[in-house]
Amino acid sequence: MSPDQSDHYPDMKVVVIDDDMTVATAIKSSLKDLGFNVKAFKDPVEGLDWVFNNDTDIVISDICMPHCDGFEVLKRIKDVKPACDVIFVTAYGQMDMAIRALREGATDFFEKPFTSAALKPAMERTRRFRMLARQRDLLVDKVDTLNRELICGPGSDNIMIGKSKAIKKVTEKIMDVADSPVTVLILGESGTGKELVANAIFNASSRNKKPFSTLNCPSIPEDLFESEIFGHRRGSFTGAIENRIGCVASAEGGTLFLDEVGDLPLKSQAKILRLLEQKTYLPVGEHVDKKANVRIIAATNQRLEEKVKQKQFREDLYYRLNVCSITVPPLRERKEDIPLLALYFAFRFGYQMSKIIEGIDDDAMLTLSKYDFPGNVRELRNIIESSIIHCKGSTVLRKKDLPELNPAVINVKEKKSLPTQMLTFSELEKELYEE
Known about the structure:
The chain has helices at about 5, 20-35, 45-55, 70-80, 95-105, 115-150, 165-175, 195-205, 225-230, 245-250, 265-280, 305-310, 315-320, 340-350, 360-370, 375-390, 425-435, and strands at about 15, 35-40, 60, 85-90, 110, 185, 210-215, 230, 245, 255-260, 280, 290, 295-300, 325, 360, 395. It is an alpha/beta fold. A five-stranded parallel β-sheet has the order 2-1-3-4-5, with helices on both faces. The chain has a five-stranded parallel β-sheet with strand order 7-10-13-6-14. Strands 8-9 form a two-stranded antiparallel ribbon. Strand 3, helix 4 and strand 4 form a beta-alpha-beta unit.
């Protein structure tokens, strides 16, 4: 093993579990000499508790232990932390157990009595295996992104991007409410993609062949709100020189999306409440109510409960809107989605600008992954768009192409979890065959 490879080890956290503390201590000592960050436990239950509550990359476990053997340790780890690799320590003559361990998900094994010379290659094989797995995941993300582009068309905005548990939960809720007539309230910070969620609900619903109409509530002056949403008759007020249908009529049979509904003035809130309760509306200048066949989806970046307490938002309207709510998490809470989102935007803007973009290098991706994105996905989108503009002489987006990021929102404690080199598909295939 070369010295530069050992530089990766301090970032790798290892837990040793062996009921023979002499063996556990010897393994710990050998790993520390190699530069690993190591904890050793005699009690498997105590060791598992540490693994489940702390960052752990590799567990080295004995197989034959009382009360909780190595196979139970492996099962529990894979149930809770499937990305954690398990290496088994086997006594001489237990080769059948070692083979069973590999079949059940262990990464490697070495025999007792062991030497540092035997331990070192096992650790290096596991380190390399982890690197290839991360590289594979990035390549799968790239293929998934390209497939989405082919299916939806380059530059499509109506795509849910992400593989984190948080975004999968959002997707599940979208599918739960899509074909229901209930009103949905979408919550989340600015730039998280609330309108994208609204579009996804609409596209997955039986109303998707009908119109989808958006009303940006803060952009409408209070005295024009009724006309904008309900329409008006010619001559009903100064400047009304012709009949005009409003957002409700234009969304007939489909969906009306009220963006940033928390900014509606109280007078306008009363009109929305009537629409929701009675399913009717009255255009300005008309004298007969019209029936409304629209589904309402609303979104806000504000805490409506607090606005209700402050008498700035009607309580009855809040409960009418909040029949079902979906909270879109900020990007800093789903950082595992950053590589996929960044790749998607890189391919998208590369296509739009007629530039060949094949990926993002590790330094650039690590910089993005450490950043907390106060502007959320919208900010990431703008950063990648700007980077593509400045990317010259390379088909790969580099750190120097990125605009300067605010150092106050960079998470310096973010652990480096990205591969150390860029691989093409053919190179990765070669590496896997060699392994």
